[in-house]
Amino acid sequence: MAAARRLDLPVVDLASAADLRAAAKSIRQACVEYGFFYVINHGIEGALLERVLAESRKFFEQPMEEKMALRKNSSHRGYTAPYSEKVDDSPNSRGDSKETFYIGLTGDDNLQNNGNQWPSEERFPSWKKTMMSYHANALATGKKILSLIALSLDLDAEFFEKNGAFEIPTAVLRLLHYAVGDVNASEDGNIGAAAHSDYGMLTLLATDGTPGLQICRDKDRHPQLWEDVHHIDGSLIVNIGDLLERWTNCVFRSTLHRVVPVGKDRYSVAFFIDPSPNLVIQCMESCCNETYPPRFPPIKSGDYLEERLSSTYKLATV
């Protein structure tokens, strides 16, 4: 596989509360030009992330039959084995070689939040507490970032809060393991995560520092130009999803990205923040005018995401 070039994405300091407008301006530039940026001083302690990664490694090191006992259910919670997910419809691709585990909100009776599955407390006594602590911290961080995104779009800082996006948020923690793999595997389309854009509103990504993440800013270019997203200690990588691109009338971009083999195991923790399922997504007022009308019809958030998720598993070979 040809080497990708290194990309220097914008870095946004969430502790610079004294100058919110400057932070919002930086985020706008990042979302228009890249669809990706880093955040530092985000409020999630490094020690908590290390515990999450340790618990994740321990789970994925189990025999397959132990992991499959918690196979993903109809609520999209639980374990998915390698090649269970496929976003590349190429006949040469078996699907993504990664394995994952999905965890949603807990603590209420809402339909989308009551399907979590947990490893046995006897073998994983700290698992649930650790994951729920990270979930709560990541959601708080995500809300802070979305407030800055609202400002960057010339909206009220509380836009997402006030319009009901967080009334019943769909916030999902996703543990990921990319096995060592063949560094040449991407030549035949079988890689850790094939080229895709995220479906939802916002993604926060923490990694163990192992490289492999690449983005392609121009999806229509042939051949595609891939750029490496390097690791910055203590940072989170943030990217815009297709739903927010749609909501902003394509003012912000949802960027193609992939994970390629690098000759060693890679662990990461993705956190997806999406609006309440019944929220109708229609073009933001600041993102359209007479000469730039809305490009998409209104749609409920939950309907849009369910359609996209279903297509991912229909393409898979297993």
Automatic annotation (TrEMBL):
The keyword Signal does not apply. GO terms for molecular function: dioxygenase activity; metal ion binding. Residues 176-275 form the Fe2OG dioxygenase domain. Residues 85-99 have a biased composition (Basic and acidic residues). Coiled coil: none annotated. Keywords: Iron, Metal-binding, Oxidoreductase. Residues 71-99 are annotated as: Disordered. The keyword Oxidoreductase applies. It comes from the Eukaryota. It holds the Pfam family 2OG-FeII_Oxy. Belongs to the iron/ascorbate-dependent oxidoreductase family. PANTHER family: FE2OG DIOXYGENASE DOMAIN-CONTAINING PROTEIN, OXIDOREDUCTASE, 2OG-FE II OXYGENASE FAMILY PROTEIN. This is Fe2OG dioxygenase domain-containing protein.
